[in-house]
Write a structure and sequence with these properties.
CATH class of the largest domain: Alpha Beta
Strand order of the largest sheet: 2-8-7-6-5
Distance between the termini: 53 Å
Bound molecules: ligand F0G
Radius of gyration: 21 Å
CATH architecture of the largest domain: 3-Layer(aba) Sandwich
Order of helices and strands: HEHHEHEHEHEHEHHEEHHHEHHEEHEHEE
Largest sheet: 5 strands, mixed
Structural class: alpha/beta
CATH topology of the largest domain: Aspartate Aminotransferase, domain 2
Length: 460
């Protein structure tokens, strides 16, 4: 482990490079128009620095690539499945594991198995795919995150925390039997990559135990959350990130994982549970939607890379450099007076589009607009996390109007350098200087589900 008085520099060196596309503004204007001002619809070849997501965009290590060569591509009982199962048990402590093609495959299984029509699923803020699967199973999501999570300027270090009064009130109102589980994400993506504290997690466990309600853990970025606990929570600084990860998982009954984030693979995920009955039902269902329970939509080599990625994700030098790089960018933007969500998140820096473009009303999509402008300026691709992502209320059909109207600059793991961070910061600062000239967008095509992926827009 590196000494903590040295900077966070990358604990790896570069063995292979992938050239980036350098484009002109004229080229980008054409590309953006063709993409309907939606950064999801840009061709990756037209992008210089891609901050769309940290999902599936990590650079794998030489050990992971070596593991890919050891793929056992048997239909059933591949040796790589057993390696993955052992890694999940060792690093996360869950008893049973079923691989899935990615996180939402696991969300589909857990929602179908546990949620009945009319159920309520409390969670520390929604995530797009997670909430949709809950709704498709007949459930209704209820937000129980602390109020400060909705305020981009509040610097409370654990904005992923659950408001226990909100949870208790929900249990009182609906009855515990209407709540199949509480959905807890470690770190909360839509709040700006904010962690939940260990203390709060323990309190949620205590309350749910009293009412015999499960906790299902969205553990997509659990290592980043654990690292923030180590860094900021009283009495936790002497512990390893790996230890804290294990403890967080031990406070829950099951999990869904998108291994495309923390676990450093380009594709893959799993569902985990400590309950035999739930496991048995998941084994029945996975063959319908993903594949046999020993591959769940993945190749043997993918499972091997995931098993190795899980062990690398809790390495102290890795996690320090990963979060350190995100903080480097965030601090640079803050120093330049750019409005960002505070504290800085662990997987990206979130621009506060309402404050960045105060002259654009939320119904003209300020975050979508800002993402488009950032692409135009220097070819940096980012993602809207505001009114477009929030979608419509499933019962009333009305647009949700989220407090947070954000543009996410998501940093892939082990991919870009500090010099890239400097280019990104310079471009954001340049767009900020010209912000008064920027006008909003109108939506010309709206898909029924998860509209942000494929919606089309025009300049007003
Ligand atoms: N939960 C969280 C917190 C996520 O961030 C994601 C994906 C998922 C579940 C679903 O996993 O994509 O593997 O099916 N987030 C990506 C993102 C898409 O860009 O934040 P998936």
């Amino acid at each position: 482990m590196t000494e903590t008085h040295t900077p966070w520099a990358e604990p790896y060196k570069i063995k292979m490079v992938e050239p980036l596309a350098m484009t002109t503004r004229e080229h980008r204007e054409k590309a953006l128009k063709e993409a309907g001002y939606n950064t999801f619809l840009l061709k990756s070849e037209d992008v210089y620095i891609d901050l769309l997501t940290d999902s599936g965009t990590s650079a794998m290590s030489d050990r992971q690539w070596a593991g890919m060569m050891l793929g056992d591509e048997a239909y059933a009982g591949s040796r790589n499945f057993y390696h993955l199962e052992a890694a999940v048990q060792r690093y996360y402590g869950y008893k049973h594991m079923i691989p899935t093609h990615q996180g939402r495959g696991a969300e589909n299984l857990i929602s179908r198995i546990l949620i009945k029509p009319g159920d309520i699923v409390p969670g520390n803020m929604y995530f797009t795919t997670t909430r949709l699967h809950q709704e498709l199973s007949g459930g209704t999501f209820a937000d129980i995150i602390v109020d400060v999570a909705h305020d981009p300027n509040n610097t409370f270090p654990f904005k992923g925390n659950v408001d226990l009064n909100k949870l208790e009130a929900l249990i009182k109102l609906h009855g515990a039997e209407k709540i199949p589980y509480v959905s807890i994400a470690t770190t909360v993506n839509m709040a700006g990559g904010q962690p939940i504290s260990l203390e709060n997690m323990k309190a949620v466990r205590e309350l749910t135990k009293k009412h015999k309600i499960r906790i299902i853990h969205d553990m997509t970025r659990v290592a980043e959350n654990a690292y923030m606990i180590k860094l900021l929570e009283k009495g936790q600084g002497h512990r390893s990130t790996a230890e804290i990860v294990l403890e967080l998982c031990s406070l829950t009954d099951g999990a869904t994982m998108s291994a495309k984030k923390d676990a450093l693979v380009n594709i893959g995920g799993f569902m985990a549970t400590n309950e035999w009955d739930v496991f048995e039902e998941a084994r029945n269902q996975v063959v319908i939607y993903e594949g046999l329970h020993t591959y769940g939509g993945l190749a043997g080599r993918d499972m091997e890379a995931m098993a190795i990625g899980i062990s690398e994700s809790v390495d102290e030098d890795h996690i320090r450099a990963r979060v350190g790089q995100v903080f480097y960018l965030g601090e640079k933007l803050m120093a330049a007076g750019i409005p960002i969500v505070k504290p800085i998140g662990t997987h990206g820096v979130f621009l506060d589009a309402k404050a960045f473009l105060p002259h654009i009303p939320q119904t003209s999509f300020p975050a979508q607009t800002l993402a488009a402008e950032l692409y135009l300026d220097a070819g940096v691709r980012t993602m809207e996390r505001g009114i477009v992502s929030a979608g419509r209320n499933k019962d009333t059909g009305e647009n949700y109007l989220p407090e947070l109207e954000l543009v996410r600059l998501t940093i892939p793991r082990r991919v870009y350098t500090q010099a890239h961070m400097d280019v990104i910061a310079a471009s954001v600062i340049n767009v900020h200087k010209q912000r008064e000239k920027i006008t909003g967008l109108k939506m010309t095509y709206e898909p029924k589900y998860l509209r942000f992926f494929q919606a089309l827009f025009e300049k007003i």
